[in-house]
């Protein structure tokens, strides 16, 4: 099994502005709920949850 990171997939995930804003917010070191991340990213909680699922 190849353990090399899939750089293209990672780039695509980080290339989305909403996900990038959410990840940037999390880099401050504080745990936040999906609703809090949604507010920071300017999207609905449902949209934030969808983006978080893609990052899992």
Could you give a quick summary of the protein structure above?
With 56 residues, this protein is mainly α.
What can you see in these coordinates?
It contains 4 helices and no strands. The model has no long low-confidence stretch (mean pLDDT 93). The protein has one domain (7-55). It is an all-alpha fold and 56 residues long. The longest helix has 11 residues, at 45-55. The protein has helices at residues 7-14, 17-26, 34-41, 45-55.
Residue-averaged pLDDT: 93
Straight-line N-to-C gap: 20 Å
Low-confidence residue ranges? none
Give me the count of strands: 0
* Secondary structure tally, helices: 4
Proportion of residues in extended strands: under 5%
How does the helix and strand content classify structurally? mainly alpha
Radius of gyration, CA atoms, in whole angstroms: 12 Å
Helix proportion range: 55-70%
Total domain count: 1
In N-to-C order, the SSE pattern is HHHH
- General shape: elongated
Biggest sheet statistics: none
Write the layout of secondary structure elements.
Elements: H1 7-14, H2 17-26, H3 34-41, H4 45-55
Helix pairs in contact: 2-3, 3-4
């Amino acid at each position: 099994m190849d353990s090399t990171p899939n750089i293209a997939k990672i780039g695509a995930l980080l290339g989305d502005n909403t996900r990038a804003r959410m990840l940037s917010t999390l880099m401050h070191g504080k745990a936040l709920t999906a609703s809090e991340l949604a507010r920071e990213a300017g999207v609905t909680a449902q949209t934030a949850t969808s983006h978080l699922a893609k990052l899992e």
